[in-house]
Design goal:
- The chain is of the alpha+beta class.
- It contains 5 helices and 4 strands; from the N terminus they run αβαββααβα.
- It has one domain: Sulfate adenylyltransferase (Roll).
- The protein is 34% helix and 24% strand.
- A hairpin with a 5-residue loop joins strand 2 and strand 3.
- The longest helix is centred in the middle third of the chain and has 19 residues.
- 22% of the residues are buried.
Length: 146
């Protein structure tokens, strides 16, 4: 998976994941139906690619919620790790992002849009893995309890 809709954003967000700042991301629920993909579920693994489409890390889903854009809260915005990590910054940046996609694909952007909100942990490489992912006592665990 690549975060963002440009090589620059993919690089920026991959770096935030590697730094431990970004531990959540949002997708439009409509994209899963339109592309015939299932929603992510707890325990799913994904490879995060940078702007050059090179693998940077492996993440594991620890929580998934479907909410409207209006229902995104400050905690999620903080965990998403962009800008100043405020809800105001998150809303502004994601409204711009979804408007770019809407212009390409012809749909309306609004506060009632359904989003898939995913939280994750880094499991590889070991030097970037979240501490609880490296804990051998957690063998077989799929992350912290929500």
């Amino acid at each position: 998976m690549r975060f963002g809709d440009s090589d620059e954003l993919a690089d920026e967000f991959a770096a935030l994941v590697m730094a431990g700042t970004k531990r959540a991301h949002a997708s439009l629920a409509r994209d899963f139906n339109a592309k015939g993909r299932r929603l992510p579920k707890r325990g799913d693994l994904s490879v995060v690619l940078d702007g050059a489409r090179e693998p940077r890390c492996v993440i594991r889903c620890v929580d998934v919620e479907v909410k409207t854009m209006a229902d995104v809260d400050e905690r999620f915005a903080w965990d998403a790790g962009g800008g100043d990590r405020s809800l105001q910054w998150w809303m502004s940046a994601h409204t711009r992002y979804f408007r770019r996609q809407a212009a390409r694909e012809g749909f309306a952007v609004g506060a009632d849009m359904k989003l898939v909100l995913e939280r994750f942990e880094v499991v590889w490489p070991p030097e970037a893995a979240d501490a609880h992912s490296r804990d051998p006592r957690r063998k077989g665990s799929s992350g912290p309890e929500p």
